[in-house]
Amino acid sequence: MAIRWTLLRRVGSTVAVLALLAVAAPAQATPDDSGGVLMRYARATWASFAAMTDANSGLPADSLSADGTTSVQTSTTNIGAYLWSAVAAERLGIISHAQTVARLSKTITTLERIERHGPSGQFYNWYDHRTGAKLTVWPPTGEPLTPILSSVDNGWLATGLRIVQRSLPELSGRAGALFDSMDFGFYYRPDVNRIAFYYAPDTGESPCCYDTVVSESRIASYIGIAKGELPPKEYYGTWRSFPDTCDWSWQETRPVGVSRAYLGVNVFEGAYPYAGMLVTPSWGGSMFEALMPALFVPEERWAPAVWLLGLLALQHPRGRLCRLWRRRDRHEPGWLSVQRGQHAREPRLRGLPGP
Asked: Which helix (H) or strand (E) holds 268?
């Protein structure tokens, strides 16, 4: 399948969040230049990371208060975001290469020593950002906390590690070793062809499963498939829309679409008609769910007829992308992932190019 190691090479060359803020920023930006504004955003964003990161552990805190105090806890997603943002900050000229290496060397050293789940190599979801200790009590409240291994949060940490591996020769081997040791097949539930939300080693609890394709969990699926730890067919295990069958007759809007088989998996490529558009929903209706994985995986280039996601353009010959739509019924703003297929009667919505 085309998304194996090619995907991770592309992930490794992506300039992520901070870089996207500064796309096409001119070298000499004037105050009214969009590039200048974006560079100010990028610098301010990096300043927040610098303020949140412990000088000894190299781990960023989960939150930063207005008075400069930080939370005790950090998550695997926070750490991953710090890794890729440091690389992006260097590429934007905000920090030097030496500063990047010095900062991330501390982070990698801490990641190499903190407690992980032995059988899977997965990291726990919450740590003390000052020491790297696994948290069993929630710092803001003092309530007991059951440590879990989160599939999507480990996906973001793995993304950060891969970018460091591909970007910093000084840290490449160490970051790559951590990346390679993380087994995403651990979350796979073959009976439903999906990945679990999380696993709690102390209790064995592992609720199942991420079930919508427009979700940030795509990043864990992409990485697991690319590493050969998840079967390629897992990509087709999640809903595009719910089916148009009697079991799903409670839906207020009936979906439209066609059924196809990919890698032996039957997929209803459905969407919901809305205001003359076909909408593929996310579970929470957020931009984050739709767009976050596309920062690292060029879905709109690999499958332009079916994905058409991202902030790369607002217009496309085959339809509009994620446009801000003011709902006529409630007069509220909301983000819709708007996609149109090549054929009016056969909307091709999400996934790798099909037949």
From this structure: strand 265-274
Shared domain for 39 and 152, answered yes or no, is: yes
**What stretch of H or E contains 301?**
helix 299-302
Tokens of 33: 């230049």
DSSP 210-264: --BSSSTTHHHHHHHHHTTSS-GGGGGGSBSS--SSGGGTT-SS--EEEEEEETT
**Alpha carbons 131 and 119: distance in angstroms, whole number:** 23
The last residue of a domain, from among 184, 202, 231: 184
Residue type, 196: A
Q: What domain count does the chain have? A: 2
Indicate whether 178 and 256 sit together in one domain: no
For residue 229, being part of any structural domain is answered with no
pLDDT in tens, 56-112: 999 999 998 888 899 999 999 999 999 999 999 999 999 999 999 999 999 999 999
Place of tokens 């300039």: 15
Question: Are 334 and 285 spatial neighbours (Cβ–Cβ below 8 Å)?
Answer: yes
Token pair for residue 150?
């989160």
Please list, residue by residue across 309-346, b when 16 or more beta carbons sit within 10 angstroms of its beta carbon and e when fewer do: bbeeeeebeebbbbeebeeeeeeeeebbbbbbbeeeee
Condensed to tens digits (0 to 9), the pLDDT of residues 246-291 reads: 888 888 889 888 889 989 999 888 888 887 877 777 777 677 777 7
Whether 72 and 137 share a structural domain: yes
- The secondary structure of residue 94, as a DSSP letter, is S
The helix/strand/coil state of 273 is: strand
Query: What count of Cα atoms within 13 Å lies in the side-chain half-sphere of residue 235?
Result: 21
Q: What spatial distance separates the first Cα and last Cα of the chain, rounded to whole Å?
A: 15
Cα(44)–Cα(252) distance, integer angstroms: 44
